[in-house]
Design goal:
Hypothetical Protein Yqey, Chain: A, domain1, 183 residues, Arc Repressor Mutant, subunit A, single chain, 9 helices, 2 domains
Amino acid sequence: MYADTIMTLYISRGILSHMSIHETLEKAIPDALRDKNEVRLRTLRSLVAAMTNEAIAKHANPSGLLTVTERIAVTHDRLLTDDQALVVIRRAANQRKDSIEQFEKAGRSDLSKGEKEELAIIQAFLPATMKREEIETAAHAKIKELKLTLKADRGVLMGALMKSFKGKADGADVKAVVDSLLS
């Protein structure tokens, strides 16, 4: 919801025509500051920091170390492509989901509440995922294509589906469909 508002605002101002997801997140930080929305601000800053770290890691030499000059150069040219940014955002969403699960198991609903708020903000920047019916249709087609029948073929089907979906489907939903079809 908030991401849509930001996108609309930037499109109306003519800013978004060439803006990547990474740039959109960076430009949303001042708006969160002005709105005094601490949760949104904290979440946006953590996403931008994760993206910057990802950019630095991608440019590191094989030893994983960068000189100060190299680090400065990467920091100035640190924008990720949209595909790379979505990987970082999905990772952040999965981390929040795991934290929520752990906090709820420990009976810490006070801590899970903050993680849920952050997850909602993060999910606003992710594209919509496929519905279970769409996953089932694709799975049936892939089973026929690959001629899979055994329970042991679940891994093959899962891998083929995830590769074809390229992040458009939630892995847990795909796993549930695969398990129901090849059990």
